[in-house]
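Anyone up for a design puzzle?
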């Protein structure tokens, strides 16, 4: 049964959707088998063009020189260089490639080698292709002689076209290749370009260093003047603000520091003198005979007097105990003790006066120092404000002096580099004379022609297949209709020189042909379907006229009749009556008369004595306007009911679906339909439009058959089945 395409599972395991068609491996193989002549023609044309090119192309030779970017040799005189500064970035190497390809560098080579006089460049000895192009374009060109500048520019462009400069992988090596007709000239120009680059690099570095030296000289003079002026401003400012410097700083700061130290010492001396004075005053109020007096003062005179006093005191105590205090000796001792006490007091007063004098002197000195410190502090405040400005002046002077020294060093280095320039590039491989041509490469050109021809052939082949929108394989039919393709019928029109009547009995004359076997396969499919449902009325239909459905219907009916089954063939195409003209051209009555009187059916049926096939022709005087109403009428239903009682197979040749509505009108009276599709002619759009227009036809559709397949093309398509596949067919009895 017919299934809409969107619900039908494609039989291809692998495929892609393209333009509504499934492009699978099987279909690709079929396309290659059908279109191999086109592919072969494209390959042949491509190889022929390649051979013509190889025969006419001018041999070219390529010479190669290599240049290495090496900054280490350029840093011999650079004392500030290190390992990290010797690294070269990718942008620098790419820039050198552009320099080598620049117009100025190539122009210097052209002038040095006088290439404008070389026949290869001035056009005096052109190749065959160049000569042809020149002849074609000469009427449109200017006849004025070219200037020397234009000639040189043309030569430069030609050299740039033949020159190829590239970086070798991730290294710092540049590969310089030049193509020329002459191997000697290729090496000569390649080496000339490499040397021109090296010389140009040296010249560029010399000029750059020269400009830098001149600028450094001018700038150094300016910085020297600025540094001198800054130093002079510093000295003038110091003189104006009385700022004198020493090894330990400013003199005012040093004086203030010294005075602070002296003030601290003076305060300590004053405190010490005051403490001695307070102590002597405290001792004066005590008993002079106490030992603390001597211990506190630590004075030799007082110590001696006190010692005498203590001796007398001991004697006095002893004599007083022995002789009494009134004894003359005791009284003398007491008088001596009193005298010693007075002497000690006098000595203490003398010492106190000395201490008081020292204290007053210390106080006076401390006050004087404090006054001097205050004056210096006030002066330091004014000096501090001036120092802020002084530091700015000194900083500016130091900056100018440092810049001046740096510029002097750079000037010295630049002067050395100018007198001894070194290039950052060196030639590591000179171009040698090539021993074989680089182009055209015969093998590569032939392989390219072969691949190009195959690609073109495949493209043309698949374009034809995809743009043609026709059906050629059972798989394509099944994809479109969703029903089984019952077989592929070969085109039998070229196998016989007889008329249409012979085509209608082809299975009788060639019972073992592929055509007959395919019809047998259709019968088997119908018989298998008959096991589950009643199938007696079989309609043979197509989308458009001239697709061979009439021939298929006639041969199928005769094939079934030859098997011994009661079979009737009806010409249901009331418009063309092609089947009647082939099988019963002299018939006087037929289908229309039988519809009017089904009981008289036997008078209108003609039987073939050879096959036993009964044929109900269609005899009308002119085309019927209401043919669809006639063939889909109740009378037709009654007639088919009568035929079902007498025949096992009722085969009806129906009108095409698209031009007329007859097939759709009678479809509900038919048990099964076989759709005939002309190989390579019926389009997918026509097939879809025909089938999708009638749901009854879709339900009754049993299968389809491809008709009129090209026998030779069919053999190529089915080559995968093996060489013995067709051995069972006998096309000619």
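Challenge accepted. My sequence:
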């Amino acid at each position: 049964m017919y299934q809409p395409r969107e619900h039908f599972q494609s039989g291809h395991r692998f495929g892609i959707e393209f333009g509504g068609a499934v492009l699978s491996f099987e279909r690709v193989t079929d396309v290659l088998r059908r279109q191999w002549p086109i592919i072969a023609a494209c390959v042949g044309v491509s190889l022929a063009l390649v051979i013509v090119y190889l025969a006419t192309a001018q041999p070219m030779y390529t010479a190669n020189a290599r240049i290495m970017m090496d900054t280490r040799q350029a840093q011999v005189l650079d004392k500030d260089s290190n390992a990290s500064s010797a690294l070269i970035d990718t942008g620098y190497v790419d820039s050198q490639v552009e320099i080598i390809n620049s117009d100025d560098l190539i122009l210097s080579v052209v002038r040095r080698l006088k290439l404008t006089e070389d026949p290869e460049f001035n056009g005096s000895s052109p190749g065959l292709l160049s000569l042809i192009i020149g002849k074609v374009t000469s009427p449109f060109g200017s006849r004025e002689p070219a200037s020397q500048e234009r000639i040189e520019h043309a030569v430069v462009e030609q050299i740039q076209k033949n020159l190829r400069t590239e970086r070798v992988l991730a290294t710092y090596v540049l590969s310089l290749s030049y193509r020329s007709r002459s191997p000697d000239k290729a090496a000569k120009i390649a080496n000339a370009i490499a040397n021109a680059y090296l010389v140009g690099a040296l010249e560029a570095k010399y000029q750059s260093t020269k400009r830098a030296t001149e600028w450094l000289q001018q700038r150094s003079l300016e910085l020297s003047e600025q540094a001198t002026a800054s130093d002079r401003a510093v000295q003038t400012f110091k003189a104006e603000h009385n700022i004198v410097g020493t090894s330990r700083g400013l003199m005012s700061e040093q004086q203030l520091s010294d005075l602070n130290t002296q003030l601290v010492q003076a305060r300590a001396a004053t405190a010490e003198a005051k403490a001695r004075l307070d102590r002597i005053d405290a001792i004066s109020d005590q008993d002079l005979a106490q030992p603390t007096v001597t211990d506190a003062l630590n004075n030799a005179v007082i110590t001696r007097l006190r010692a005498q006093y203590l001796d007398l005191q001991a004697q006095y105590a002893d004599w007083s105990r022995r002789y009494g205090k009134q004894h003359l000796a005791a009284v003398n001792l007491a008088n001596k003790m009193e005298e010693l006490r007075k002497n000690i007091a006098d000595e203490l007063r003398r010492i106190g006066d000395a201490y008081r004098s020292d204290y007053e002197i210390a106080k006076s000195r401390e006050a004087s120092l404090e006054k001097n410190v205050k004056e210096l502090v006030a002066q330091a405040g004014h000096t501090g404000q001036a120092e802020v400005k002084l530091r700015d002046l000194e900083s500016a002077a130091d900056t100018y002096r440092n810049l001046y020294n740096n510029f002097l060093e750079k000037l010295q280095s630049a002067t050395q580099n100018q007198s001894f320039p070194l290039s950052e590039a060196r030639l590591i491989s000179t171009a040698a004379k090539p021993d074989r041509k680089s182009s055209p490469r015969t093998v590569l050109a032939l392989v390219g022609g072969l691949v190009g021809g195959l690609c073109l052939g495949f493209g043309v082949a698949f374009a034809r297949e995809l743009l043609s929108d026709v059906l050629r394989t059972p798989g394509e039919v099944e994809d479109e209709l969703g029903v089984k393709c019952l077989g592929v019928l070969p085109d039998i029109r070229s196998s016989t020189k007889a008329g249409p009547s012979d085509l209608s009995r082809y299975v009788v004359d060639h019972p073992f042909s592929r055509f007959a076997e395919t019809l047998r396969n259709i019968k088997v499919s119908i018989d298998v379907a008959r096991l589950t449902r009643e199938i007696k009325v079989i309609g043979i239909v197509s989308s458009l006229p001239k697709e061979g459905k009439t021939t298929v219907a006639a041969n199928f009916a005769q094939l079934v009749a030859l098997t011994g089954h009661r079979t009737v063939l009806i010409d249901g195409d009331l418009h063309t009556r092609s089947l009647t003209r082939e099988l019963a051209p002299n018939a006087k009555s037929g289908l229309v008369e039988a519809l009017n009187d089904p009981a008289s059916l036997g008078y209108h049926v003609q039987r073939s004595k050879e096959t036993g096939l009964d044929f109900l022709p269609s005899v009308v005087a002119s085309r019927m306007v209401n043919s669809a109403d006639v063939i889909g009428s109740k009378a037709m239903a009654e007639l088919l009911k009568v035929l079902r009682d007498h025949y096992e197979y009722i085969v009806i040749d129906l009108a095409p679906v698209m031009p007329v509505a007859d097939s759709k009108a009678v479809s509900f009276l038919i048990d099964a339909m076989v759709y005939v599709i002309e190989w390579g002619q019926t389009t997918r759009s026509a097939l879809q439009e025909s089938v999708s227009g009638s749901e009854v036809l879709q339900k009754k559709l049993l299968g389809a058959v491809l008709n009129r397949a090209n026998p030779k093309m069919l053999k190529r398509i089915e080559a995968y089945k093996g060489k013995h596949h067709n051995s069972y067919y006998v096309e000619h009895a």
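A detail worth pointing out: The chain has four domains: 23-57+444-466, 61-203+422-429, 249-419, 472-728.
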